[in-house]
Amino acid sequence: MTTMDRRTFLAAATVTATASPANARAKGKGAIDVHHHAAPDFFMEDLRLRGPVNPGYQGWTPERSLADMEAGGIATAMISFNNVWAGDDARAARLARRCNDYAARMAQDHKGRFGRFVALPLPNVEASLKEIEYGLDQLKADGVHMMTSYGDKWLGEPAFLPVMEELNRRKAVIYTHPTTAKCCGNLIPGIMDVTVEYNTDTTRAIAGLMFRGTLKRCPDLRFIFSHAGGTAPYIMWRFEAQARNPATRDTVPAAGVVPTMREHYYDCAQSAHPVTMQALAKLVPTAQILFGSDYPFTTAKAHMDGLATCGFSATALRAIKRDNAVRLLPTVKT
Predict the structure, then answer these.
(1) 17 vs 307 pLDDT, higher one
(2) Is residue 55 left, alpha or beta, with left meaning phi > 0 and alpha meaning psi from -120 to 50?
(3) Would you kindly state where each structural domain of the chain is located, as residue ranges?
(4) Under DSSP, is residue 108 helix (H, G, I), strand (E, B) or coil?
């Protein structure tokens, strides 16, 4: 088992919780945030080597995560690290391992407050298979984390099938997060990629999984798609038309497009808006919708306030904020 370096260990060991997990939030009344990012110093250093860093990451600490959780009524946040791969396979494998060890230490130091999705160094398939074994078997993480695309390859890429098949064997949860694909950065000057492109990349990933055969070959995978599924809920007519196309109709699960979409999960991160959530709720039952804050780029409280405007019943809100995640991720319910 790989051990953490001294700097990372000390950084994690000195973190103190701002509230006890014995409080009401951690004992069955608080929400579970499935979309919560970490950015310790070593991760930030790697990001800076790549170029400009999203200012939302600046100043992140575990204490600040806990403070945001308290302000928003979050019992448990699922930790993820965005995009450990930047073109160098070996470097990505090292960074993924370091991130996964760090998240494990956070969870250990704050019992019940942090769950974890294993960072995978895709598109490096061999290293990703090793990290699945390490993260799920040794670190006992709750699922894995994939980006929607890697360079010019989206989820659904045939080269990724060994990873998908191993996760299917394990009936694993796969949390996905969008990024800016190689093709599509800064398409309209002045408009941030996160404004349009991130949701579009989620839709490309769903289309790749649906129409390149992954969801049919791996029926026991359980995906969490960020940001209410991107633009996918709005283009179901086109998805169903694609399912009838001779080029792809044999790749779609026998149940069809919409029933297959309803088997997976969608978070409300940066989507807690009446228009977006009502469209998503037309596509999938509220049992498939999860709470996500996208911290540190936004806050849990902002999403709690946003959900309150979306017309959900009290029962549906409780399911979205907590019960659905408990059913999907049973290890985080304490």
Answers:
(1) 307
(2) alpha
(3) 29-332
(4) helix
Distance of CA 311 to the CA centre of its chain: 25
Q: What pTM value is reported for the model? A: 0.90
Say yes or no: domain 29-332 is CATH 3.40.50.2300: no
Specify the amino acid at residue 308: A
Give the tokens for residue 182. Answer: 């190689």
**Nearest-10 Cα torsion for 160, 199, 319, 69:** 100
The DSSP code for 295 is B
Q: Note whether 221 and 172 are within 8 A (CB).
A: yes
Q: How many CB atoms lie within 10 A of CB 259?
A: 10
- Helix (H) / strand (E) containing 198: helix 193-211
Query: Cα(first)–Cα(last) distance of the chain, in Å?
Result: 26
User: Could you give the C-alpha distances from 243 to 86, 236, 300, in angstroms and in order?
Assistant: 33, 10, 37
Angle at 57 between CA 55 and CA 58, to 5 degrees: 70
Provide the 10 A C-beta neighbour count for residue 238.
Answer: 12
Q: Lowest-pLDDT range, 70-79, 193-202, 231-240?
A: 193-202
Q: Which pLDDT score is estimated for 28?
A: 58
Strands (E), the chain: 31-37, 74-80, 114-119, 143-147, 149-150, 153-154, 173-177, 222-225, 265-267, 289-290
Q: 181-188 contacts: CB < 8 A, separation 24 or more?
A: 181/148, 181/149, 181/151, 181/152, 181/154, 182/149, 182/151, 182/152, 183/152
What are the residues whose beta carbons fall under 8 Å from the beta carbon of 98, sequence distance 6 or more? 4, 5, 8, 42
Amino acid at 260: T
User: 122-176, pLDDT tens digit by residue?
Assistant: 999 999 999 999 999 999 999 999 999 998 999 999 999 999 999 999 999 999 9
At 53, list the tokens. 């860093």
In whole angstroms, give the CA distance from residue 122 to residue 93: 9
- Cβ pair 288, 265 in contact under 8 A: yes
Q: Cβ contacts of residue 325 below 8 Å, gap of 6+? A: 32, 34, 290, 291, 332
Among residues 210, 266, 270, the alpha carbon closest in space to that of 236 is found at: 210
d(Cα 137, Cα 134) in Å, to the nearest integer? Answer: 6
